[in-house]
Amino acid sequence: MKNAIFNRKQLAVPYMLFLLLFVILPLLVVVYYGFTDAEGHISLANFIGFFANPRTLGTLIYSLVIAVIVTIICLCMAYPVALILAKGAYARKHAFLMVFVLPMWINFTLRITALKEILTLIEGNLALYPFINTIICMVYDFLPFMIMPLFNSLTKLDNSMLEAGADLGANRAQIFIHILLPLSIPGIISGVTMVFLPAMTNYVVLDMVYNSTYIMGSLIGSYFSSYDWNNGSLISAILLMMIGMFTILADRFTMEKEA
Amino acid sequence: MENRKTLIELKNVRKSFDGKTNVIEDVSLKIMEGEFVTLLGPSGCGKTTILRMIGGFDKPTEGEILLDGSDITLLPPNERPINTVFQKYALFPHLNVYDNVAFGLKMRKVSKEETDKLVKDALELVDLEGFEKRSIATLSGGQQQRIAIARAIVNRPKVLLLDESLSALDYKMRKEMQLELKQMHKTLGITFIFVTHDQEEALTMSDKIVVIADGEIQQVGTPEDIYNEPANVFVADFIGESNIFNGVMSGKLKASFAGTTFDCVDDLEKDIKIDAVIRPEDIDIVKEGGQLKGEVLSCDFKGTFYIMFVQCGQYEMEVHCFDYYEPGSEICLNIDPDMIHIIPYDTSINHYPGTINGINDAGLVRVKFADMDRRVARDRIHVGERTGDDESVLDVINKPDTKVIVNFEPSAATLTDDAKAGDICGNIISFHYIGDHYSYTVRSESEEDYVVDDADLWNQGDYVGVVIPEDSLNITVL
């Protein structure tokens, strides 16, 4: 088109600038700070320090344990819900889905505060069960993020696959194990990705339920509030690498299945 | 067909998905062991629903399905000795060819060695030896089709169901697969139940064809039976090309239609209304004389023969011949008596139960039937031989809710595209050409059917109004 003011390349410039300034550059800054010392010299001291220090290593393990438990509970709760909503013959399944996802639209602190009140009614003193309360609050918080991708991937799954399974003699359990589960792995992976990392870092939940144990997020926060940019960045970089590795492995896994 | 034992029997099967309208209407059917049966019908006729009920994917609302004499109506698919080749194959994308084919054997816990052998045999049968390790995504449509067949037959089912299985293939591949399937059927000796909307496919492959329309079986028979002796106008029109004419029996072995009286071989009562069916290839072209004279409208080459349309007076005829005739030229046509197939006119057409409810001040009778509430003149009411003009009939008419049968001739009604202007409105669900006009079936929202003759061409699915003049209604008091 002759009278177009900008061509395609020119139109892409603002987006490229945005990506460069707000995505690429900050990432490089995080990695740079993570692998330099306070004087700006390149150093692995932070990295080695992190894994040598029992306190930081313990935090990593504690975060991993919380994240794994929260993710597994979310998956176990979300899968049946997503399956029923996606494959059930309900006229208003999207309305039901909306109800499950609706809490996402209410402010996070308000939701957790409300949940705290309920837990207080049951337990009496919240401070008695910090670990369990952390898990309960996180599961409540992250469940919609697990339901959505599972629902999407199960909706796309062709019903004739399940019928073919039954036709070939598979009972309900066998259909689930041999057909439904393998075919919904992409949905499981994106759900897990969306729950796992937030569960490792969302220390606000811990604060709110009086859990004084540190997780990775609290560690970053404490380093930054004491102006230790290098160690704070390093932990962010480690989390980044972990999630990066997980994504690559998951992609590799699904690609292998499809190829 | 020699005496075979009944393998599958459907007994008065009815299916409704919404509890209101029946997709399948009281279907009873016997399928013999080792038969190649085709369920044939236009899309939406319910043929796939019947197949799915045999496979166990849908449960009949009423009636039962027997296999080898035992009731399997409520048995889940995995407990039936029946396997299916799905319309879009439904191969498992996360498994390779071997695991797809071996799936059923794995579920039955067949040993590894035996599985290997059976899978190899099945792949050999579908001509895909050595494809074991291939992933499904790398296969062409035709290959996926073959794998789907292998995956089903490897289980040695008693019945193999094929749901429009060839419709996704291109023409040449489809022809090839038709012959191969027939060959496979012979080799395996398994009962095949095949669903298709393609009449040519059905005629080529089947031992027995079940023609289905509108959730009901129209005719069951061998391909030859169905083609040569169609049970009704729908079958005649749906299978192959047909010239169909409205007519009447004008004497013993004499039928009048298309403006002429023909000798025929069907012995029906004199004066009974008929539909006469003549296949285009059964019309002879003669030098002189002939029963019909006409002008050639068009003559098109179709590879092995010519399709010619001939105008004989007000009637149009389709004729297949091996010689070319110049459009505009005059030709004479002859129809052999045994080439005329006569079907008694369906007397249930446009007959509706209803009630009449007294006479108003203007001397009109209120009649309610089907979707209508009309006021008609007294002379439209018949009580035996008498009509409503007869004073002695008045007391019958004046009784509240007198039961009547209302009917009208298809030729008396007309179609209009302004649906609101019609006495009823609905969609055209089917139509066929009858010599000099089209016969349309219009279905209203309340599922009543109205048959209307119209000279103009409308499309299937058109939303139309049907105008039925008061003076064309014949009301018979029961």
Protein model, in words:
The complex is a heterodimer of chains A (259) and B (478). Chain A is mainly α and 259 residues long. Chain A has a domain of 165 residues: MetI-like (MetI-like fold, Orthogonal Bundle). Helix content of chain A is 79%, strand content 0%. Chain A is built from twelve helices and no strands. Chain A is globular and about 70 Å long. The model of chain A has no long low-confidence stretch (mean pLDDT 88). With 478 residues, chain B is of the alpha+beta class. In chain B, the strands form six sheets. In chain B, strands 23-22-21-26-32-24-25 form a seven-stranded mixed sheet. In chain B, a hairpin with a 2-residue loop joins strand 4 and strand 5. In chain B, 37% of the residues are buried.
CATH topology of the largest domain in chain B: the name is Rossmann fold
For the record, the CATH architecture of the largest domain in chain B stands as 3-Layer(aba) Sandwich
Number of strands of chain B: 32
Q: Describe the biggest sheet of chain A? A: none
Distance between the termini of chain B: 46 Å
- SSE order of chain A, one letter for each helix or strand: HHHHHHHHHHHH
Main beta-sheet annotation of chain B: 7 strands, mixed
Total strand count of chain A, please? 0
